[in-house]
Design brief:
Layout (H helix, E strand, L loop, with lengths): L1 H13 L22 H14 L3 H11 L8 H27 L1 H23 L1
Amino acid sequence: MVAKEISMTMESEKRHGGGRPKKTIKRESATGVRFTKAEYFVIKQKALKAGMRITNYIREMSLNGNVMARTSEEERHFIRQLIGISNNLNQLTKKAHQEGLLTAVLHFEKYRNIIDELLQQLNQ
């Protein structure tokens, strides 16, 4: 009987509580800020443009004075094109190993020119 009690207490000690793990740094103080509808709309648009939640945007602006925006829609478009080109280059590399180097060189030149154009557009 005593062995059962000991094993029961050991099992209950091994169990972990459910839920999310505790944060190492907790935000303990909360403050409220009131905005007009127009101010709130402007802040919401700026937060969306930066790709952040409103509270994180306000916190960053109050602590640092500026927010680094995520990539713009145009930059995301360029990145998608570069990803597509990289997939094509991987396929060309596979073909070059299978069929020979001469056919692949022409395709590599074509994609290299496209990549150069995209990089020039990104630098502008």
